[in-house]
Amino acid sequence: MSPRTVRLRTALAAEWIKLTSVRSTIGALAAVGVMLPVLAAVVGLTGSLQPDDTVIGASLTGGAPAQIAAGVVGVLVIGGEYGSGTLRATLAARPDRGTVLAAKAVVVGGLTFVAAVAGAAVAAGVGRALITGHPSGAVVPGVLGAAAAITAVGLLGTGLGVLLRHTAGAVLAVAAAVLLPQLLAPLAGSWRGWVAGAGPVAVLQKLAQSSDADPSVVGGLGPVASLAVLTGYAMAALLVAGVVFRRRDA
Predict the structure, then answer these.
(1) Rounded CA gap, 9 and 232, in Å?
(2) CB contact at 8 A, 149 and 209
(3) Cα angle at 34 between 29 and 36, to 5 degrees?
(4) Which pTM was predicted?
(5) Domain residues for 132?
(6) Exposure of 51 by Cβ count < 10 A (0-12 exposed, 13-18 middle, 19+ buried)?
(7) 216, 193 contact by CB (below 8 A)
(8) Residue ranges of the alpha helices (H) in the chain?
(9) What is the mean pLDDT of the chain?
(10) Which residues of 128-140 are buried (b: 16+ CB within 10 A; e: fewer)?
(11) Is residue 194 predicted with pLDDT exceeding 80?
């Protein structure tokens, strides 16, 4: 086993311990999984879905809050250390900053994806139990796709946390990235579909087969291509963050 692999494994173990021992991060991670089934129950009990909606699409209506919660997880993993000053100790123990950031991203991505899959699967079950008279939709692709769209925002949060070095500011930036494309799209005229379709919420709606993912509203880019674009945003943020992280004092 190469020294670099050993360093990465050690860094992964350390980041796992840190993430799972901080209450605020655990709370945000739990919110990722809890929001989806709770809001699925609200939709099912109130019948607040479109006539042409699928069960899986209506069940995953809590995707936007879950995406913001995932972004908060990503921010806290690095923002908490900036705020407390413990990042200096982390870098003293592991001077390879690229390895440290990679470990944080892997842990955030892995845990967020697991929480999102669990939450989406439970939400799908809740929707199936409460929603009748609608086609079920493709459940497994919907669950996995929604989880991937949520995870991408978690990774975006890690990148923004490094770039901004301020927890509250990075959380606001994540919320803006999730919500603003949908809010500003009606003002964009003929560009409405492109503006909304570029946002994390629209990507999740497409993957979840929601009736809200009408091409006239969220653009004609397909679900997988839209997820690739969203993942590209997150990877770009992490790459820029990696460059800044190496050059800037902790």
Answers:
(1) 25
(2) no
(3) 115
(4) 0.92
(5) 3-247
(6) exposed
(7) yes
(8) 3-21, 23-46, 55-59, 63-84, 87-93, 97-130, 139-164, 167-184, 192-197, 200-207, 215-218, 223-247
(9) 88
(10) bebbeebebbebe
(11) no
Report the distance separating Cα 132 and Cα 123, nearest Å.
Answer: 15
Residue with tokens 């705020």: 83
Q: Mean of the pLDDT values across residues 145-172?
A: 95
CB 140 within 8 A of CB 58: no
Find where tokens 């503006």 sit. Answer: 195
Residue 236: which of 162, 181, 166 has the closest Cα? 162
CB contact set of 182 (below 8 Å; sequence gap of 6+): 196, 199, 201, 202
**Token pair for 220:** 């004609």
Task: Classify residue 38 as exposed, middle or buried by CB count within 10 Å of its CB (0-12, 13-18, 19+).
Answer: middle
Q: How many domains does the chain have?
A: 1
Rounded CA-CA distance 83/65 in Å is 25
- For the chain, what percent of residues have pLDDT higher than 90? 50
The whole-angstrom separation of Cα 145 and Cα 126 is 18
